[in-house]
Design brief:
The chain has ten helices and ten strands. It is of the alpha+beta class.
Length: 301
């Protein structure tokens, strides 16, 4: 870490620097404590400079919306590293807290999450958009190939592959918006027992707004079905379009297949986790004979 550069942006005396290991990002993350407060520092390889400049410009837009999130303070670099300095935001990890709340409270937080997501999806895009069907189909085929070559075979994944291959046409003429890119309860903080803050925008992207829900089955519904239902129902103001669940299943299928080869470098625990996720996805979609997951029902409350 370049402390000389850092001191230009944090001028008060630094008391403590703690590395944060949670998450799967290749970036290094640090909590910096000073006499006057706390900061969050993300450190990336210099080859990520263009990407980090892209992220920083949108972090400024995100913060300007009024969403509870970290304020971007500075982006700077040396010969080897890129540094993104943000404010540190306090809160309780929602993933750890959610199951201790009542079902009604979980559902209401899902509604609040959808309201945040709508704001994120309204952020103005500066870049030209890709041709979505071509772009995403390449990703789908790549995930299938990587899964088939990774050496790990989960029973009945042929149904996932069949669903993907048989539903390419769903990708045509999709709208594109700014995406958080990793929107789930693991990237949410609960403040004062009722307010939500969202963090970790480092997988931000531009694409189909429905793709934002692809983390649901892997992360959110596993902890809180009421939250997941509230988020979906509220996002569409209680009028879920006919095209949502077929695409929801498609994006979930694609990301599920990609999850196992992705997890291999991280070790057995993460591989086992993604195998369990794959089995859950197959159960939830009844081997993809249905597109609405078995746990979803609108009349929760």
């Amino acid at each position: 870490m370049n402390f000389k550069l850092l001191s230009k942006h944090i001028t008060e005396p630094i008391i403590l620097i703690e590395q944060i290991y949670k998450g799967w990002s290749n970036d290094q993350k640090f909590l910096i404590t000073t006499n006057e407060g706390k900061y969050f520092l993300r450190v990336s390889e210099i080859k990520q400079l263009v990407r980090k400049q892209f992220e920083y410009s949108y972090l400024q837009k995100i913060y300007a919306t009024g969403i509870r999130t970290q304020q971007p303070l500075a982006l700077f670099k040396d010969e080897k590293l890129v540094y993104t300095l943000l404010t540190y935001i306090e809160g309780v990890d929602l993933e750890e807290k959610l199951s201790f709340l009542t079902k009604k409270e979980q559902y209401e937080l899902g509604i609040k999450s959808s309201q945040i997501l709508k704001v994120i999806h309204q952020i103005k895009i500066d870049e030209p958009v890709k041709k979505w069907d071509e772009h995403y189909w390449k990703k789908a085929k790549r995930n299938i190939s990587r899964y088939e070559q990774c050496g790990i075979n989960v029973a009945n994944t042929k149904y996932i592959i069949e669903y993907i291959n048989n539903n390419k046409e769903l990708l045509r003429n999709r709208p594109q918006v700014f995406l958080h890119g990793d929107y789930h309860i693991g990237n949410m903080l609960l403040q004062n027992k009722k307010k939500l803050a969202v963090i970790d925008f480092n997988r931000m992207d531009i694409g189909d707004p429905y793709d934002e829900f692809n983390r649901h089955i892997a992360f959110t519904s596993e902890v809180s079905i009421p939250y997941a239902i509230g988020e979906i129902v509220s996002y569409f103001d209680n009028k879920i379009p006919d095209d949502f669940f077929p695409l929801y299943a498609f994006y979930t299928a694609t990301n599920t297949l990609g999850g196992i080869p992705w997890a291999i470098p991280y070790g057995k625990n993460d591989v086992d986790k993604m195998i369990d996720v794959t089995k859950k996805v197959l159960r939830d979609f009844n081997n993809f004979t249905q597109v609405i997951p078995t746990w979803f029902h609108k009349g929760l409350f």
